[in-house]
Structures are given as C-alpha cells and as structure tokens.
Amino acid sequence: MEKKIVQGMLLGLATGDALGVPVEFTSRRRLEEEPVVDMRGFGSWGQAAGSWSDDTSLTIAAMESIARLGKIDFQDIMENFLRWYNDGEFTASGRRFDVGSTTRAAIVRFSRKLLPPTKCGSTDEHSNGNGSLMRILPATLYLYATRGRIDVEELEVIHDFSALTHGHAVSKIACGIYSLIAAKILDGKNLSEAFALGMDDAKIFYGKHEAFENFSRLCDENFAALPEEEIYGSGYVVEALEAALWCLLNTDDYKSLALKAVNLGEDTDTTAAIAGGLAGIFYGAEAIPDEWLKILKRRDYLEKIAEDFAAALNA
User: Fold this and answer.
1) Label partner for 77 (CA 20 to 30 A): which of 54, 68, 116, 261?
2) pLDDT tens, 259-273?
3) Whole-angstrom Cα distance, residue 149 to residue 132?
4) How many CA atoms lie within 13 A of 142 on its CB side?
5) CA–CA gap between residue 91 and residue 61 (Å, rounded)
6) Contacts with 137 (C-beta within 8 Å, 6 or more apart), sequence order
7) From CA 21, how far away is CA 248, in angstroms rounded?
C-alpha cells in the first residue's frame, strides 16, 4: 500500500478531529450562528488550536502496534490503549483530555485482567457509541493491504477490533459497513460508487442479521438526498456513520467535507474524524488546507506513524 494513502487517511482523520475539538458538544443551532470556518483553539476542552483527541490517539495507538509487530495483536493494541489512558502516550500534548465511558470501561476491564482483549468491550445495547468506529481504519487498511479485500473473513477481524471496546452487534456492523466502503475507495471507485457498492456488500453480509435493521436509512438509494436537518452528528454509532457518509456524498473536497461535518454540531470531532479518514484516503493529504496542517499538533509524529505503518504493510 502506498505511503500517501496511509498518510492521507491519518492526516485526514486527525485534521477533522482537531477541527472539531474546540466545539464538541456545541449544538447545530449555535454553530449556525457562529460556524466553524477555520482551526480554532480552546473552547470545549481548553486545548490549543490543532489539538486532536482520543479519536486520533486510539487510531495511532493501533497503528503503532501493527507497524511494530507486522500484524494485528489484540493484546498489544490494548496495552497501547492502556498506555494512552494511564500515561498520555499517543496524545497531542502528552496528556489525554477526552475518553468515552464505554472505552474507559473496556480499558479498565483489560487492566484488571478480567477478560481477554476481544471480550473487554461492552455488549450492552446502550453502549453503542462511536468509539470503535472512529479508530477502525488501521484494521481496514491492514486487512486490505495484506489480503486484497474486505470479505467475510476480514469482517470477523473488524468485528473483533471493534469488540476491544465496543462489543455490541450494532457497533460491529457499523465498523463493517465503514470498512466495506473504505475498501471500495481503495479499489479506485469514486465516493458515490464506493458507497453504493459497499452497501451492496453490507446487505449480502449482514442482511439477515437483526441488528442490520438499524442501518435501514443507509440502504435507501436516496440516502444522500436526505435534508441536513435529518442528519445528526451525535455520539450514537449509527447516526455518526450516517453523518460521516452523508457529508462525504454531499461535498466535493476535503475542506468542505470537514467543515460540513463539524458544523452538524454535537460530537463534532468524531464526526469529522470518521468522515475525514475516508476523505483523506480519497482526496489525499495534499487536499487538506495547508494552513490547517501547519497548525495541526505533532504533524511530524503523525507522518512518521503513517510512514512506519505503510512500511509494515509493504514488508
């Protein structure tokens, strides 16, 4: 896999994340009055402009493990998550400032050696936040690069990758759908084709699963035409996936996508990170505004993680 694909993914994800951090939890109505148009600082978390959150931290924690070992090792990935949680490794400033309750609970279970890694994620239906979806792309890229596809066998790995923190079927399927669409982008399809073909595969793989009913709007051929007021940038994984994909289908460049995702309001950093990762693969890092990249914290570090990860995929 070309380094530029990995770099585009990671910088696209991190930039979207950083763009949304200062306005996380802000309502859409408030953002309509004062929309995000550029990188801001402080705000919701008091962080300097360009600071990325747990979305990026957990993504690079997974990437570092895969790059170092040359494979997916769930025990080692969870050890990295624990170092992030306890020691602030893989962060923009040396200190974590954001963690979802479901992710926190899974890491605590792992730290207490209560369960094996892929059993640490909650299977409760109320624990379907977007915390595994936001960090799933390292697994997707690894599987695509090493196996050339995302099929039934690969989806089982994706599901286990989600279950490190989010073990309910809805979270697993969300990660699977996202990965299937990412694979079509990696195949060279345009965004609308990738969405349609990815959803066709999802219907085949998940169509008989009861939990797939939660994704009925994505199965509608008119999904992209839904009005913005029916799209929600919430922390619920189904709505987060819908919001990210809707933004991808209704914009033509990285900047427009990232701003649209953030200005949906609520879980602004994660919506933009989820959308930004796919947009980074499709448009490339060169499409991200240079003025944003100049502000992005630890850009050199992110680029080195991407380089090491790409090298491991090509070894």
Assistant:
1) 261
2) 999 999 999 999 999
3) 21
4) 27
5) 9
6) 9, 13, 59, 182, 277
7) 20
- Taking a C-beta distance cutoff of 8 angstroms, is the pair 124, 168 a contact? yes
User: Residue 129, SS3?
Assistant: strand
Question: How large is the angle between the packed helices 137-147 and 152-163, nearest 10 degrees?
Answer: 150
pLDDT at res. 282: 98
Q: Tell me which residue of 297, 259, 253, 246 sits closest to 11, measured CA to CA.
A: 297
Residues 212-262: tens digit of each pLDDT: 999 999 999 999 999 999 999 999 999 999 999 999 999 999 999 999 999
Q: Which of the 8 DSSP states describes residue 94?
A: S
Distances in Å between the Cα of 275 and the Cα atoms of 10, 127, 206, 244, 257 are 12, 21, 22, 4, 8
Q: Give CA torsion, residues 205, 209, 211, 213, to 10 deg.
A: 80
C-alpha distances in Å from residue 189, one per residue of 47, 107, 208, 293: 37, 37, 27, 26
Domain residue ranges in the chain? 3-25+49-314
Q: Pick from 23, 35, 38, 28: which is nearest to 239 by CA?
A: 28
Query: Could you tell me which residues are beta bridge partners of residue 129?
Result: 236
C-alpha span between 96 and 58 (Å, rounded):
11
The answer to whether 59 and 165 have CB atoms below 8 angstroms apart is no
CATH topology of domain 3-25+49-314: ADP-ribosylglycohydrolase fold (1.10.4080)
Q: How far apart are CA 34 and CA 271, in angstroms?
A: 18
Sign of CA dihedral 53, 57, 60, 62: negative
